[in-house]
Amino acid sequence: MKSNPDLSNVKEILTSVVSSPGKVTVVGSLNVDLTARVEEFPAPGETVPAADLTYGPGGKSSNQAVASSKIGADVAMVGVVGHDAYGSFVQRSLEDAGVDTSRVVAHDLPTGTALITVNAAGENTIVYSAGANRSVSRADLQAAADVLQSADVVALGFESPASVVAAAIDVARSASDANTETSAHTNVGPIVHADQNNQPRNHRNNSGEARKTRRSPRIILNYSPIIDVDPALLNGVDIVVVNEIELRSLGERYGSAQLPTQERGGLANVAGSKVDEHVGAKLEDAPTVRDSASSMAKEDGADENGRFTTATRLVAVMSLGGLIVTLGPEGCFVVESEDSSESGDVNPTRDGDRSDRANPTDTVPTTNAVYVEGYPVDAVDSTGCGDCFMGTVAASIASGQSLLDSARLATFVASRAATKQGAQSSYSSAEELADQLKHDQANQQIRS
């Protein structure tokens, strides 16, 4: 079991997020979660007894919106529900969590549904039916252009079709060159966006200094589930969040590829495709969890340095500002591009014991990579913990925190979600988290 990071640092990050909330717009899935709890997962063809079936609000994007709102962000949700009781229930749950749902529309389709099984160890399996989530149109996104373009962070994921993700990026970016805004956020690292010629432009908000910056939201993509997409779409993304299995799948797809440089028209062409289809996605091409985990175990890249190397290559090939890989109870690691960090280090370093050693190679560019320790908890249910992590990162970055500090905070917040049942119902408010941090710090002092 790894030791905890410095909780005082997490408390400072949380306080800063709450005191300087940013704007987050989440585009994507709104579902109802139907959950059955069992002792062990059934084998193929096996029937096992379960506790009473429960239902609650869900959807990866909806979960992320609730997590962002509870941590203090000003959150707007963009998506589609069905004309049914589940749709009304999901939308009402978002509103109860403080999320603006005025850009959520209802279509004559079933609300998205997730069938979840949770075993005695708190692990879960999920079967997802997109339903109305597949019907998001470009017109729906254009109608939400105000909250997309005014956001500090736009959070996206692939429970929505890839064409919807591309269209959301295009709408969010379309006004960035025309708008300026005074920003007084502090402690913000370099922000890297592309101009109309796809050339990077870097902005840094220096501590205590209000200055004019070009207005362009940071795009954070939760690359989950893994699908094949047109490489042009990835050029609009600043930060990607994945788990270990998704990292492996992305490494197989993009690790050795060379993405073409796309002008704005390239992204617009993707965004203009049919919005009810995944761009180039084939369900049978997506590896199963069992297949991915098995192949990872057989690869040399399954060790810690190998995972960092894979992540570093992806940051370069996908032209990302940063990549976060979540490791469940073990924490996460953060890789930032040379443009987004002060120094480079392709070898993993421990959070709190960081040495910025440059180690460039012919194939792996200089980057900054830091491992963030996990927080040991007695896990009850891991459902929605990854979404809690993603939503917390979005809220933290929107408030002006660095990618690394955002990952530190998200690691703690997601660990607390694992101690409660359900997805959105397990997310803590900023006040509850502050109380928990105080309690945990006191316990650390007693043990020391």
UniProtKB/TrEMBL annotation:
Cofactor comment: Requires a divalent cation, most likely magnesium in vivo, as an electrophilic catalyst to aid phosphoryl group transfer. It is the chelate of the metal and the nucleotide that is the actual substrate.
Gene name of the encoded protein: rbsK
Catalytic residues identified in the record: D387 (proton acceptor)
UniProt xrefs under Gene3D superfamilies: 3.40.1190.20
GO MF annotations, alphabetized: ATP binding; metal ion binding; ribokinase activity
Pathway stated in the Swiss-Prot or TrEMBL entry: Carbohydrate metabolism; D-ribose degradation; D-ribose 5-phosphate from beta-D-ribopyranose: step 2/2
Protein's UniProt name: Ribokinase
Nucleotide-binding among keywords: yes
Native source species: Corynebacterium pseudokroppenstedtii
PANTHER family on file: RIBOKINASE, SUGAR KINASE
Span of domain Carbohydrate kinase PfkB: 23-177, 368-427
